[in-house]
Design a protein that fits this description.
Largest sheet: none
Strand content: under 5%
Helix content: over 70%
CATH architecture of the largest domain: Orthogonal Bundle
CATH topology of the largest domain: Tetracycline Repressor, domain 2
CATH class of the largest domain: Mainly Alpha
Radius of gyration: 25 Å
């Protein structure tokens, strides 16, 4: 009876081990890495930490992800896959482009701790490249040449990433000093000379009611209007 119970116990442990092994996948590992980074920052992400959270051993993870560089590539790919392009209507290229890159901005703002991952030179999966392919097809379908479509994509992507980075680091939006945009505006109004800074002081009312979403809308609309001019000139 004792040996039977012992044998049964060993089988149960083996079953649990097999369950953990079968449950592990590259997708689960990448998703857990993103969850850790979102909560604690990218520096908290390690193979050991991910393994601990998933109830596995670090060595088991290497059966699915070869190294940390591959993990970072998987994270970058997963972020790009989060871009929801289901609402895009390619028949209206300007509206589709605005919707797509606005969605890209939304994903970046959703994962501010992972912004640096997209700046790394990593391998990106074909699935993650599909939003880019869609953007290129919409732009080329509108009449831009492949080279012009690529330039437009780089311009729009650069604007989206730069805008998010500025929103994350802009000291006027409430930095380490704890001052809000309104507080900064009031401080400038009290300390700056109208003779030396007339333009800045004239803009202070807008600073007090600053809205980064409306700023994004203004900027991307300006780029798209410029693209329309480029397209008309090319035609």
């Amino acid at each position: 009876m004792k040996s039977k119970k012992l044998f049964g116990g060993l089988m149960n442990k083996a079953d649990v081990t097999d369950t953990h092994r079968n449950a592990l996948s590259r997708h689960r590992i990448v998703e857990q890495a993103i969850a850790i980074a979102d909560a604690e920052g990218i520096d908290a992400v390690s193979m050991r930490r991910i393994a601990s959270d998933l109830g596995a051993t670090p060595m088991a993870l290497y059966n699915h992800v070869a190294n940390k560089d591959e993990l970072m590539g998987g994270i970058a790919g997963q972020l790009l896959k989060e871009i929801d392009v289901s609402a895009l209507d390619p028949s209206d290229w300007a509206a589709a482009i605005k919707t797509g890159y606005t969605e890209f901005r939304r994903v970046l703002l959703r994962h501010p701790n992972l912004f640096s991952v997209l700046q790394r030179k990593t391998e990106v999966s074909p699935d993650a490249l599909r939003p880019i392919e869609l953007a290129m097809s919409i732009l080329q379908g509108a009449g831009f040449s492949p080279e012009e479509a690529l330039k437009a994509h780089w311009t729009l992507s650069g604007f989206a990433m730069g805008h998010v980075l500025w929103q994350m680091t802009n000291p006027l939006l409430g930095g380490d000093d704890g001052m809000t945009m309104q507080a900064h505006a009031m401080h400038h109004r009290a300390t700056l000379s109208t003779d030396d800074f007339p333009c800045l002081i004239a803009a202070l009312p807008a600073m007090e009611a600053y809205d980064m979403d409306s700023c994004w809308e203004w900027g991307i609309d300006a780029i798209i209007e410029g693209l329309k001019v480029k397209l008309a000139q090319g035609g």
